Amino acid sequence: WRSTQPHYDNLGEALLALFEVATLEGWPALMYAAMDVTEDRHAHPQRNATPAHALFYVIFVVMGSFFVMNIFVGVVVHKFQMAKERTDGASIFLTEQQRGFVDRVKVLLDAGRPKRLRVPRGDCRRAVFYVVVSEGFELAVIAAIVLNMGAISLNHYDQAKAWDDADLGLNLFFTVVFLLELVLKWVGLGPRQYFADPWNRFDAFIVLTSLVDNASEFMATFYHIPLLNAMNLSLFRIFRLARVVKLVNVNPGLKTLLQSLIV
């Protein structure tokens, strides 16, 4: 028999093993191998010969991975933010020409977003406008997104026909809800203001793909006419899951993280 890789026969291999445990990369395999070690270190391993060795790995994961590694990452991020502040918010890895390009892109992106929405003149459109820009309307849309993601997550392998019918009904219901959101925003904001917002263009694309997905699923279920093959149908369902990205727009922490990745 041979020692597992990595092992603790020398300092280098031991440090490598502890590093793998700290990064949570395959650490259960190392723990199980340690549990099979016998009292005689020259004897071959036996299953669960020393189960107490697992306690070391549990403590090391809790202390080394959950605390020490997070502290290390926190220090690195803090130093990076300090260096970024010294460069007036620009990335320390960019040259002057690259920083100028990033600044021009930011200006163009900001210019593409309406700073202040214009209120329509008609009484009906004005009433719809105040509804779609209200916080309650935004919260209702977010709730619909969360419920839609929950309904999608309930799908499972070899589910009953009743479950398939319920899934089809829920999918159609949420598609109608998001289509209604699109129509209300279109009426309240107007086409120009609606498409000026990148999030609205994203919503319109997701609603369009959802309509194609529903039409294909409806025709295949009730008329046995497959409009799309299985691969294309799965692709459209992935687009439905992309709607969860909208949650970034209402979560300051996620928005900051996304902006940091872009910048």
UniProtKB/TrEMBL annotation:
Q: Name one GO molecular function term.
A: high voltage-gated calcium channel activity
Taking the first listed entry, what is the main subcellular location of this protein, grouped into a coarse class?
membrane
Question: What are the Ion transport domain coordinates in residue numbering?
Answer: 5-87, 137-262
Q: Does the keyword Calcium apply?
A: yes
Whether Methyltransferase counts among this entry's keywords is: no
Membrane-related topology note: Multi-pass membrane protein
**Which terms does the UniProt entry file under GO BP?**
calcium ion import across plasma membrane
Q: Which residues cross the membrane?
A: 12-34, 54-77, 127-148, 168-187
Which compartments is it annotated to reside in? Membrane
Q: Keywords in UniProt for this one? A: Calcium, Calcium channel, Calcium transport, Glycoprotein, Ion channel, Ion transport, Membrane, Transmembrane, Transmembrane helix, Transport, Voltage-gated channel
Q: Which GO terms describe its cellular component?
A: voltage-gated calcium channel complex
Family matches, as Pfam families: Ion_trans
Q: Which domain of life is it from?
A: Eukaryota
Record protein name field? Ion transport domain-containing protein
Q: What is the lineage of its organism?
A: Eukaryota, Sar, Stramenopiles, Ochrophyta, Pelagophyceae
